[in-house]
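X-linked retinitis pigmentosa GTPase regulator (Ceratosolen solmsi marchali), 346 aa
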Amino acid sequence: MPKIYFSGLNASKLIHENNFHNPGTVLAIDKFISLSYDDITDIEIGWDYILIWKNNDLYISGKIVTNESNKLNRLLKIPEHTNLKFKQAIAGSENVTILTNDNCIWMYNIYNETWKKVKIFISSVSEVEKEYVIKIAQGRCTVALTNLGRILNIPISVNNPEVVKFIDVACGYDHVILLTEKGDVYTTGMGTRGQLGHGDLEDCDKPKLVEAITGLKIVQISAGGWHNAVISNQGDLYTWGWNNQGQLGQPNIENIVAVPTIVDFANEIEEKDYNVTKVECGSTFTICITDTGELWGSGSNKYGQLGLLRKNIFVSKLFIPLNINYCNLPIKDFKCREWSCCIFTG
C-alpha cells in the first residue's frame, strides 16, 4: 500500500479532525500530513468531500456525509447493480461521476443520494471496432474520451477534427484541453482568461489546435481553474492562462498569458536544467515533479495546498522547490485538484 500525504483544504475527518465539528470552520492544513489508514489505495479530491479508494471499493467521506455522523466514510454502490466495478471517479460539486467497468457513466447526487445512469449518444464511426468511453474529465461540464480517440461533451459528440485521435483530456472550469497521439494539443471552451492558448481571449466551440506549441511533442497535459500546464518530451514545462495567483510560475506577467510559455526554474544556488516528468494543476496553483524526484510548486497557498506554512508563503509567483520530508521514501505519484494536493510514496 502507498503511504499517502495530504495538504490543503480539509474536507474530511479522515484527514484531520480538529475543529471539524463546526461546519463553518475552514480548516487549512499547511503542511503535508500522513493519513494513518493503511488500507487506502487512492484518493479523489473534491471541494467539501473526498473519495477514497480501497482497492476496487469506493467510499465517500466529508462534510456532506451528515446522516451517518458515526462513520468516517460510506461505501458507494449502485442499487440493483452492486456487481459493477468502478474504474474512475470524479468528485464534483454536486455529483460523483463514475466510469464503470462496462464503460458506462453513472452520477451519484451527494445531497439526495440518488443514482442516475448517463445516456451517451455515440454515432458509429467504425464498422470494425465498437466505440466506448475509456476516460472521463470534469469542470463545469463532463467530457468523455472514447477508445477511438473522440471526445464527447456528455451526452453528445463534439465536432471532432478529422484524422485526429485524442489520447488524453483534462478540464478546467470552462475549458477543455486535449492531447493527440502525435503530441499536439487542442483546446475548446471559454477563452476569457487566455486559457485556450490561441493568443486571444475568444471562445472556441470546437477543438482547435494550439499552434504556439506545434512542432513540439507534448506528452502530458493538465488543466486548472482557468490555466493549463503541459510537458514536452524534452522535459520542458509550458503554462498559460490566468496568472492572478502566480499559478503559471511566470513572475513577470501580471494576469493573463494567452499562449503557451516555457517555465524558467529559478535557482539562486546554481544554474541547472530541470526535466519535468509530471505536472498537476489545482484551481489556482500548479505542482510538478522532476526526474530526480524533486517537487516544485507555484501559485496560491491560501489553504496550504503547496505544503508550505501560510505564514511564510501565501502566494508564490514563481516555481519554488517544495522541500518536504517523506521519511526518505520516494514519491510514486501525486495529484492536485481544487485547493488540495495528495502525495503517494512507497
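The chain has no helices and 28 strands. The mean pLDDT is 89. ok done for today
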